Amino acid sequence: MKRYLINHNCVYNEARNEIKNTDNALTIKMTAMRARCLSFIIEHAADGIIDKQKLTSALWGERGQFVSDANLTQLLYLIRKDLRTMGISNFFVTIPRMGIRVNQQITVDVLPDEKLRKRYGIWKVVIVTAFALSLMSLYAVFDMLRSTPHN
C-alpha cells in the first residue's frame, strides 16, 4: 500500500484509507470504496482522460456493468468533498460522457514506504551510535598514548 503527498500538504494513506492535512493535522477517514477510487484515479492520472467504464470496472469488477452512472457520480462527489475539506479543489474534472481528468496543476508524489523508513531509521541510529563509540575508543587510545612517557 502506498502513501501519496497531494498538493504539498496532504498525505493520502492507502493502507489506512485516510487523508491527513500536514498543515493543520485534520484527518478524514474514507470508506474503502472511496479510497479504492482515489487510488485508481491517482495511479491513472497520467492516462489523460480516465474512461468512466474503466473506472467502474476497476471498482465494481464484473458487477460494474450493472452499476448506474449515478453510483459513480455520487462516489466522485464524495471524494471531491473530502479533498475540498482538505483544501484541495478541482483535483479532477468530469469530462461529460467520457470520464474524468486529473488536474495537472496539483502535484501528487509517492512517499517512501513507512516500514522501510522505520527500518532504515533504526539503522541510522545504530550506525551513528557505532561511529560515536568508535570515536570515543580512538580518543581513549590517543589519550592513553599521549599520557604515556616516551623514552
TrEMBL record:
Matching InterPro entries: Sig_transdc_resp-reg_C-effctor, WH-like_DNA-bd_sf
Any one GO molecular-function label of the UniProt entry: DNA binding
GO biological process terms held by the UniProt record: regulation of DNA-templated transcription
UniProt organism field: Siccibacter turicensis
UniProt-listed SUPFAM superfamilies: C-terminal effector domain of the bipartite response regulators
Domain of life the protein comes from: Bacteria
Record has Nucleotide-binding as a keyword: no
Bilayer-crossing regions: 121-142
Keywords from the UniProt entry: Membrane, Transmembrane, Transmembrane helix
Protein name: Transcriptional regulator
Keyword DNA-binding appears in the UniProt entry: no
